[in-house]
Amino acid sequence: MTSHKTYTAIYDHDADDNAWNVRIKGLTGCQTYGRSIRQAQSRIREALALWLDTDAAQLRVRDQFPAALASVADDVVRARSAAERAGAKAQQQTVEAVKSLTDLGLSRRDAAELLGLSHQRVHQLLEAS
C-alpha cells in the first residue's frame, strides 16, 4: 500500500558524538542516526520504510533541521537564487547590448571591447539570437 502522507524527519546534531540523530515526528521509536546528514537521511528513510512495511521510494519525507542551521542554509539558498536571477538578467542585457551596438554599426570586435567580452563571445551571442 502506497502512503500519500508526508512524514517529517526531525534532525538534531550531537556535537559530542559528531553525529546526526533523526526521528520521525509522531512515530515514537522510529529513529536512527548518521555520521553525515546524507547518511542520516538515507537511514531514516530506510527505517521509516521498515516501520510502515512499504517501499522507501514511495515515501515522502520532509527534513526539519535545527532552526539556527536551517536559517543559515535558507539565507544561502535565497542569496544563490538572487544571484541566478541577476545572472540571467545580466545575460539578457548583454545580448541586447550586443545587438544594439552591432545595429549601430560597430564591429563585433569593437562591441566586444566596449562590453568586456571576447569577439568570439559576441559572435556566439549574435548567432544564438
Automatic annotation (TrEMBL):
<protein>
    <submittedName>
        <fullName>Unannotated protein</fullName>
    </submittedName>
</protein>
<dbReference type="InterPro" id="IPR035069">
    <property type="entry name" value="TTHA1013/TTHA0281-like"/>
</dbReference>
